[in-house]
What we know:
- By secondary structure, the chain is mostly helical.
- It contains 14 helices and no strands.
- The chain has one domain: Orthogonal Bundle (Farnesyl Diphosphate Synthase).
- It has helices at about 10-20, 25-30, 30-40, 50-70, 75-80, 110-130, 130-150, 160-175, 185-210, 210-215, 220-250, 260-280, 285-295, 300-310.
- The protein starts with 10 loop residues before the first helix and ends with a helix.
- About 50% of the residues are buried.
- The mean pLDDT is about 90.
Amino acid sequence: MNISLSGAAPIKQQLTILFALSRTPHGVIDMAAPAAAALLCLGHFPALPVVIIGMVTVFAGYTAVYAINDLVDLRTDIEKVRIGGYSDCETYLDGVLIRHPMAKGMLSFKAGLFWALTWSAVALAGAFWLNPVCVYIFLTGCLLEAFYCKLWRVTPLRGAVNGLVKSLGPLAACFAVNPCPPVFFLICLFLWFFFWEIGGQNIPADWTDITEDRHFNAQTIPVALGLKRSSLLSLTCLATAMFFNAAVYVASALNYNGPFLLAIVLLNVFLLLKPAMQLNETKDRRFAMQLFNKASYYPLANLVLIVFFIIIR
């Protein structure tokens, strides 16, 4: 079934498929990363208009970028679907709705493009209102996302590009609440999310698709480096992310205390390091999916702790 925006299918069904294109359940969780970054940079809650416009802008930005991924990767995704890839029956966060609905013939390219452009326009308008610097960051993210997709059969270094993309949202959030955020804080923040994305998102996500990627000789990290080195790299990246996580809090505007820092360490251990060590020991695809899912909730868990600390201090 090929759905357009012409009303050929029920509106609810169209929206479900469109949100599936943007992996909205995952995207909504990802929104916690820029929210956490903004609070760490500011040290308190921003003004209500900034909160409202910021939430709309972040939602639009993540919705657009995830859709751009599927638009650029459409031919590749179709090839994977033809050999039985992208199952929707697994406990995998990106498959909560439908994985890659355009590739499965459930959504036209035209409808997907319209969806991505509409949310891009919303994101650009909101970014300009918050801080024009955010516009350039968003456009850079869109270009890097397209570049990342094109490197599928070229180099495993595409994982680093993915790390750049995921780090830009938190950086933009800092400029949205502070015209001149501290440089050291920005560097630590960037490296925190960069290594978290590679170790907790990119490697385990590509691990779940390794059978299809090997079939097409894709140059993902698990295919190019093998499972043993990939699992070790994932663990190393997440241990590094934990280090920069602590550095971010030290450089932040929060006057944190010992119990708060201990809670942050425990988050890193249970959501990142423990599942990464299990994957390193077993090399089992199921544990790659578990790592991906747990790591996806890591920014949200940080945000909850930050909000709780700001409220009670």
